[in-house]
Specification:
The complex is a heterodimer. Chain A is built from no helices and eleven strands. By secondary structure, chain A is an all-beta fold. The chains are: A mainly beta, B mainly beta.
Chain lengths: ~110, ~120
Amino acid sequence: NAGVTQTPKFHILKIGQSMTLQCTQDMNHNYMYWYRQDPGMGLKLIYYSVGAGITDKGEVPNGYNVSRSTTEDFPLRLELAAPSQTSVYFCASSYSGGSNYGYTFGSGTRLTVV
Amino acid sequence: AQTVTQSQPEMSVQEAETVTLSCTYDTSESDYYLFWYKQPPSRQMILVIRQEAYKQQNATENRFSVNFQKAAKSFSLKISDSQLGDAAMYFCAYRGRGTSYGKLTFGQGTILTVHP
């Protein structure tokens, strides 16, 4: 049981380039989330999805896009990367929105935009 | 909107001693969950303990326990018999049970250092 898998683990991106951070889970969770963590700060929600075909913005969605074509996959797209997007990105999943079991987190992607 | 505040950016403790990390939150919801997550240098987010707001009894997981004061909106984490492996960043998090779609709201984190 792999849980939540994120790729890549590290990446350096040039300003103006685009890339996709991959996230897949094998637990049949309906709810999936993308968070970013800036140095010395807590995690902030970028986008979330409550099921295949349904996505919505979180607290800091600007500069990002997501899609959810299957239950398992929830990729995060960065368009026209900017230095402000340098961060650690976490994908997470949950069985339901009302679950008391918190999230299952991926191991994170450290992204540097130069 | 819900907010979570951790007022201690850094804490330190001697090995085998006890330390308490503070967390306060603000919400208008009556039913919710609270969590403490541990983030070691590996970056992995590890669930330490959880508390359901409707339960008056404080949650306990081995050396970790919480002091949940619903009226005061306070949720502190006590680590007993601290070990070197407890050194990490600790995050307090809130999750509403209503229409917030399970979104977690995190505090800013507390860096815990354990001295041998």
